[in-house]
Amino acid sequence: MKKTAVILGAGITGLTLGWKLSKDYKVIIIERGKDIGGTCSSFCYKGFTLDYGPHKLYPQKKEIEQEIKSLYEKDPQKLLEIKKESTIFLKENFFKYPLQIKEILTKFNIFLGLKLMSNYGLNMVKQATSSKKKEESYDDFLISKFGKSMYELVFKENAEKIWGNPKDLSSDLAKTRVASPNLIKVILDSITNKKDPSLNAETFFYPQESIRDLSERISQKIKKNNGEIILESKLEAVKVKGKRITHLIVNSGRRKIEIKPDVFISTANLKDVLPFFDLPNRVLESLNKLKFRGLALAYILVNKEKAMNSNWAFFPEKRFIFQRLSEQKSFSAFNQPKDKTAIIAEISIRPEIEFMEDAEIIEKVKADLIKLDILKEENFVEGLVLRKKEVYPIYSLDYKEQLKIILDWADENLLNFVTCGRNGLFNYNNMDHCMDMATKIAEHLKTNGTIEEMRKLRKYFESYKIVD
Ligand SMILES: Cc1cc2nc3c(=O)[nH]c(=O)nc-3n(C[C@H](O)[C@H](O)[C@H](O)COP(=O)(O)OP(=O)(O)OC[C@H]3O[C@@H](n4cnc5c(N)ncnc54)[C@H](O)[C@@H]3O)c2cc1C
Hints:
Elements lengths: L2 E6 L3 H10 L3 E6 L11 E4 L2 E4 L10 H9 L8 E5 L2 E5 L2 E5 L3 H7 L2 H20 L8 H9 L1 H15 L8 H6 L6 H10 L10 E5 L4 H13 L3 E3 L3 E8 L2 E8 L4 E4 L3 E4 L3 H4 L7 H9 L2 E11 L9 E3 L9 E4 L13 E8 L2 H4 L3 H14 L8 E14 L5 H15 L3 E3 L11 H16 L4 H11 L7
Parallel strand pairs: 1-2, 1-13, 2-9, 6-15, 13-19
Antiparallel strand pairs: 3-4, 5-8, 6-7, 10-11, 11-12, 14-17, 14-18, 15-16, 16-17
Helix pairs in contact: 1-9, 1-15, 3-4, 4-5, 5-6, 11-14, 15-16
The structure holds flavin-adenine dinucleotide.
């Protein structure tokens, strides 16, 4: 008889785990939402198919690219490969993103351009000649890399807008996960005239139907292997004997189900799942110290065939309410009205946004779009705001310490429990990382890996970098 693997969450991590385990295990996925895919999903609205924020696929690992392509092997034309066009708005101009030296020197006023470059150059010399000092915080790290002028222009307000005070954020965020994360390496590369494909995507993949199609295709693989996905279901209780989880009680609305898992894998937020167990105070305290920020997505429907010149554009300055704009049609025009387009504005839920009414958010986005000449008043059709909680794990100065306390406790006390995924491991990552993580964890389980091996895997997951 097959062992039973229960997976909490049908996002891309949970689905990939289900796919990879379903030949060897009886897989049951418990999903609290009405649909599969989690963040890697889409919805229909007035003739549009819209994603929960722009979702390009740029797998950094060849194996993951192959896995994605294998899902489209019967109809490869349904996985589009798109030339990436991205921009960043600084001062009064759109710049190609990654930033290019030529544009820095010609599009800014010449004094600012020269100041930025000389500041950067001086910093390089200072770095090369001074003894290496450990940069703990986001701002320390970026100032030491680029100089104060570039930091203040590109990174400071961006961090304040998305995550909070840069002085309270870990340098890990700057190294791997800034909203325009790879700007760091990218500016360096443009100065040295190098191109690092692992950090700067020239093209990206996108399913013709919508990003949900990727999740859908994985879910079909699970079902083909007799795996089950139970939607609108909630974990209600767990029973533990010794150090093993023996029963999971799940409420699926109409009925309560009791499942005896051989292994229980959670991709849900650590803060939601671990409190089901009898936790010591120090673990509870650490869980409370892990902070997330939510995201408001404002969809602006426009009476025009196309509105933007790029797939997406970054807006680091605080005067704009959003940190990024994207145009759904530039990912795939399929499933979109011919004569209309939709712009998606991503707005981190910072204190001043938290209590803002949807109508006010729409007005502000609209006003900014008009200022930027992306929208004309007469072309505005309507706006829609969706809010999602716990979207950005906040890498505070001590997040690693807290995470260690939590995971060490779980490793030692719950022998058939695994936590993974973006919120399950507090790992600020992308879909391809989630697929890689799930694939490696599935292999680990199938080969009865040790706790030490799992720790090594988690260390490796920390090395993921977001590509823009
Ligand atoms: C705005 C935005 C843009 C992005 N753009 C890109 C991009 O361009 N490219 C890219 O590769 N990545 C992108 N990402 C990142 C990517 O979406 C995530 O890394 C990935 O989708 C996370 O998958 P996950 O399965 O770990 O988590 P989730 O997608 O959060 O899935 C978790 C699932 O678990 C369910 N769940 C949670 N708690 C419970 C519970 N207690 N019981 C039952 N079910 C539960 C949730 O409902 C959800 O379905 C973006 C993310 C955002 C927010």
